[in-house]
Input
Amino acid sequence: MIININLATFGGGCFWGVEESFRTLDGVIETSVGFMGGDNPITYEESRSDTTGHAEVVHLKYDTDKISYEKLLNKFFSIHDPTQVNRQGPDIGVQYRSVIFYHNQEQKGLAEKYKIELQKSEKYGALTIATEILPAKEFYVADEYHQKYLFKRNLNTCN
Output
């Protein structure tokens, strides 16, 4: 049996909750949390300095025969506030920004289209969708302690 595997990377605040939201979707094969957007490997403590350029992200592998990138985008935009700049709720800093790191031109086009349609929908009124859409860079995996953090603690959300 051939499985069509693709990668997707999303940042929407603290990576623990974002990971748990994607981990349970049918068609998502694997999730891991870490950092993307900066130029150097970093630790969790360094990411909190707000100076590395990295965002906390969930990096996932998914089966394109079971789940589409559009469905992943829909999930992403449903689990955080894409109008907030460099924050989500009480978490403040560039590492908590809303960002999609695309792995190919198709993902880029789909993400841009989704963002435009969401803005036009006026779901957020006059607020602007702040989500960045950027080419994927090197993914730096976070320490094991952070992987599947909520699942290991039998939690569904951070709150």
User: Anything to note?
Assistant: Residues 5-148 form a domain with the Peptide Methionine Sulfoxide Reductase; Chain A fold (CATH 3.30.1060.10). Helices lie at 15-23, 44-47, 69-78, 105-120, 149-152. The chain is about 25% helix and 25% strand. The radius of gyration is 15 Å.
